[in-house]
Design brief:
This is Ribosomal RNA small subunit methyltransferase E. Its main location: cytoplasm. Keywords: Cytoplasm, Methyltransferase, rRNA processing, S-adenosyl-L-methionine, Transferase. Specifically methylates the N3 position of the uracil ring of uridine 1498 (m3U1498) in 16S rRNA. Acts on the fully assembled 30S ribosomal subunit. By secondary structure, this protein is α/β, with parallel strands linked by helices. The protein has 2 domains: 63 residues, Hypothetical PUA domain-like, domain 1 (Ribosomal Protein L25, Chain P, Beta Barrel); 156 residues, 3-Layer(aba) Sandwich (Alpha/beta knot). It has 7 helices and 11 strands. The chain has a 7-stranded parallel β-sheet, sandwiched between helices. Helix 2 runs parallel beside helix 3. The longest helix has 15 residues. The model has no long low-confidence stretch (mean pLDDT 92).
Length: 230
């Protein structure tokens, strides 16, 4: 099955310019051809093309199916954007394929990137959602200061990845949790002060193994562990 995406398909049954071009020019779809569209919140729509325009492909909804079951847990990963933009894009792509609900970019003391536009990341997420045949699009939040983020965090289970003597393996403490917030630090790691602040606000220090991981790798590993053990 090939999926297209339109967040407001029931009110605006028109594909985006990018999807319209792919549908009409690349796939050679025409009037009366049937396609499948997801809305990013679990809806799967069987549609029929009524206007095969390469910039505004209009469709008619034939049926609606909530075939994509949502996972029984909510995963939010807060991660420091990497200096190399390709790495954070890799993280977004792989976590969407695995399964994630929300992503926040955090500005830490050792962050090497001081700004990060989310528009490009949202496009990566949409592409990964369609490619992996999912109907849920994660929310991607703007870059947020570390202090502000932890002070507003309110999840059933909150973890911060760091190699310390008191850290427990994530897989050992995540079982049976319905809401999980995971923080991943920058290339230079969190500072001691940041770790202390996080612990004071309810975060538990966890490890993702004995290896020293790149930021984006740590994010993907955390996503995989949560989805495996919940």
């Amino acid at each position: 099955m090939l999926l297209f995406y339109q967040s407001d398909i029931e009110k605006t049954p028109i594909l985006s310019e990018e999807d319209s071009r792919h549908c009409v020019k690349v796939l050679r779809k025409n009037i009366k051809d049937k396609i499948h569209v997801v809305d990013g919140v679990g809806g799967l729509f069987e549609c029929e093309i009524v206007k095969a325009h390469e910039k505004k492909c209009e469709v008619k909804i034939l049926s609606v199916e909530r075939a994509f079951e949502k996972r029984n847990h909510y995963l939010h990963i807060a991660i420091a954007p990497t200096k190399n933009a390709d790495r954070i894009e890799y993280f977004i792509e792989k976590c969407v394929e695995i399964g994630i609900d929300e992503i926040t970019l955090i500005q830490t003391k050792h962050s090497e990137r001081k700004n990060q536009k989310t528009e490009r990341l949202e496009k990566i997420a949409i592409s990964a959602m369609k490619q992996s045949l999912k109907a849920y699009l994660p929310k991607i939040n703007e870059l947020t200061d570390f202090d502000k983020f932890i002070n507003n965090a309110n999840f059933e289970a909150m973890f911060i990845a760091h190699l310390t003597d008191d850290a427990k393996p994530l897989k050992d403490v995540v079982a049976d949790k319905k809401e999980v917030l995971m923080m991943i630090g920058p290339e230079g790691d969190f500072t001691k002060e940041e770790i202390a602040m996080a612990k004071q606000t309810g975060f538990q220090v966890v490890t993702l193994g004995n290896s020293r991981l790149r930021t984006e790798t740590a994010g993907v590993v955390a996503c995989t562990v949560v989805n495996t053990f919940l």
